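Researcher: Structure for this, please.
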Amino acid sequence: MSETFEPAPSTFANLPEYSVSELSQALKQAVEERFPLVRVRGEISGLKAATSGHTYFDLKDDKALLNAIVWRTAARYLKVKPEPGLDVICTGRITTYPGQSRYQLIVEQMELAGLGALMAMLEERKKRLAGEGLFDAARKKKLPFLPNVIGVITSPTGAVIRDIMHRLNARFPRRVLIWPVAVQGERAAAEIAQAIAGFNKLAENFPRPDLLIVARGGGSIEDLMAFNEEAVVRAAAASIIPLISAVGHETDTTLIDFASDMRAPTPTAAAELAVPVMADLKAQLADLDRRARNCFDKGLSDRRRHLSQLVRVLPRPEQLFASPRQRLDQAGERLGLALGRNLQIHRTQLAKSVALLRPHPIRTRIRHAREKLENLGRRARRCEDGHITRDRSRLTSLTRVLESISYRAVLERGFALVKGADGTLRRRAAQIKLGEHLHITFADGESGALAAGVPKARVKKPGSDQGSLF
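Model: Predicted structure, token format:
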């Protein structure tokens, strides 16, 4: 038979009593006092970004899991942006969330747990940005041969700007605009991205740079992290002005090197890429000038020699003009004879014309023309009389026919034409109304009448209706 332990009622009677809220507040105070500031290493999982700007995630290892929060005000100052799967060391304070009876880490700073984690993050970021086409060679712009204005984005107090200015002055002095920025630290990435965008937004009336140089001296990979930030890489890729990246030493490589139009191993090398050597250009120009003069002199000499050869093969002027002169003399002789013959021909034609213009022949021609005109007039009159007689006979015949079929002839035989007041013809007695005014047309004129009686219907005999004469 099993036995159960039943404590005496007096065992718990002296324990203090807490409400849920009081106990939760006591636990919260105890945890925060015990762990005011801690550093926790773990892998990020369950990353969520709220619309409020706060970031929620979990830190885990192979045995446990810890909730973590980054408030919106602290998120902008993080050295490392939280990403899923990243091994990080978070610095913050432990607290509890009474609403769900859990403890959590309020993160105030975050750093990578080791160099391997940092390189893995950079490699993943590089693949993602390359997948967007930010590193494509097709989008890279050609550097200007000799820029008038060069914009330099770097720290104004380091040795980098002095090296760049010294190299530019030694090679080919140019106008330089410096945009001072922090090259490491929390503010560096934002300032560098703003500087690149700022140079691109300068007004046309301002000395806008033709070339940009983003430069920094050497350092550890953590010191160069600002040039690996996504904001800086996107700003470099979006720059309309050609950009040279010169970050660190020759062995240092950052993500901005892949997005820039040209990578320089050092800031000094960037200045060498930016401008040519003035002395070399002068020597090249002198050489081109010498070659141009030699070419001109040689061409002139060749043309003189060719002209001399042509002179030797050309005939003398007397030989060139001898034959044309002879032809001219012969033409002159023929011209005199031709003028005499032409004059004789025109004189003969003039004599014939004068003979035709004497008075007697003219009067004879006029008399013949008059006789011909009179004959034509007589023939025309005879033709006209014949046509008139024929037309008169035809008109008389048509007049007789018209008179024979006209209703006037009917009226001459004693008939009359009766019309109503509206001008319409009254062919039947039934069409006439009592008291109606009528117009009666006789052979010699018209007369008015008034219908005084009711017309009587006339009995028709078969075959007696001959129709109206009108």
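Researcher: Any notable elements?
Model: Residues 334-405 form one domain. The chain has a mean pLDDT of 84.
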